Amino acid sequence: MATFIPQDIYGGAIKAIIPERWLDASELRQIPDHQELFLSPTTLSNLIFEINERVSEQVALSALQANPNPDVLEFLGSTTNSGPQPVDKAAALYHLNDIRDGDADILRIVTPPQQVTARKIPRANVYKGIAQMNSSTAPRSGVAPSIGGAAPGSSADGSSVSSVSVHYLLVRLEEQETDMLVFFNVPHKEFDEKGDPRGLSREEELAAAIIDGLVERLEIVDWGLFGG
User: End-to-end distance of the chain based on CA atoms, in angstroms?
Assistant: First the structure.
C-alpha cells in the first residue's frame, strides 16, 4: 500500500500530500512560479500542482462549443442548463485541452469530471476525473513531451506513439478568480515496453489514491497567495 507524506507547497501557503520518497523537481531544475512539480524516483510519473486564472463561463463554454470531438462533448451533458456544474465541467475540459501538445495529442475522457467535496476547502467547487493523452507524433528534436516526460515509443508501422493517463483535480475558487489544478501523469511507455500491465495498474492506483487523498487533505492556509 502506498504511503503519502505531508508536503507544503507555494512557500507553505497550501498544504498537500505527495507519495513518499518522491522528489521535488525545483531542487533539480527551474520550475515556473505558478507550478509545483514532484517526480517519482522509480518511474516516469509526475505530480503537478498549478495555479491558473479562473476560466470564465464565456471562455469555458466557447471552448466547449468549438471542440469537434463528439465523444468528449457527450460526457459533459447539456451545457444549456443553469447552475455551475456544466460550466465547471467545461472548464475542466478547457484545462485538459490546455495541456495537450497541440494537434499531436488526442484527448480521450476515461472518467468524466465528478464533483466532490474538498473537506478543508468547503467554499470551492471541486471536480476529479481521468483523461488520457494519446500521441502518434514524435516531439520536435530537443523538445520534451508536454505531459509526463516520457519519450514516445514506436508502433509496428514505424510511427511514434505514446499514451499518458492524466488523473486530475480541479479546485475552482470563484472569489479568488483562480483555478487550482492537480495533474498526476502516468506515462504508459515504460510499462508497455517491459510488458508490465500490473505495474501500470499499480501506478494508476497510486494516482487515484493521491487524488482522493488530496480531496480530503488539500488545505489553503494563506489565502493571500491569490492576491486581493
Answer: 41
Residue 72 has pLDDT above 60, yes or no: no
Please state, in angstroms and rounded to a whole number, the distance separating the CA atoms of residues 137 and 191: 19
* Average pLDDT value over all residues in the chain: 85
Domain hosting residue 28, numbered range? 4-226
From the list 219, 58, 224, 18, the residue with the least C-alpha distance to 123 is 219
pLDDT, one tens digit per residue, over 105-163 is: 888 999 999 999 999 999 999 999 999 999 875 544 333 344 444 333 434 444 557 89
CA atoms of 13 and 223, how far apart (whole Å): 7
Q: What percent of the chain has pLDDT over 90?
A: 67
Q: In this structure, what CATH number is given to the domain that contains residue 164?
A: 3.40.1000.10
Q: b or e along 66-94 (b: 16 or more beta carbons within 10 Å of the residue's beta carbon)?
A: ebeeeebbeebeebeeeeebbbbbbbbbb
Q: Which three cell numbers stand for residue 111?
A: 472518467
Closest CA to 96 of 164, 153, 160, 157: 164
Q: What is the DSSP letter of 33?
A: T
132 burial via Cβ count (<10 Å: 0-12, 13-18, 19+): middle
- Cα 56 from Cα 67, distance rounded (Å): 17
The tens digit of pLDDT for each residue in 175-192 reads 999 999 999 999 999 999
Give the total number of structural domains in the chain: 1
Alpha carbon distance 202, 2 (integer Å):
10
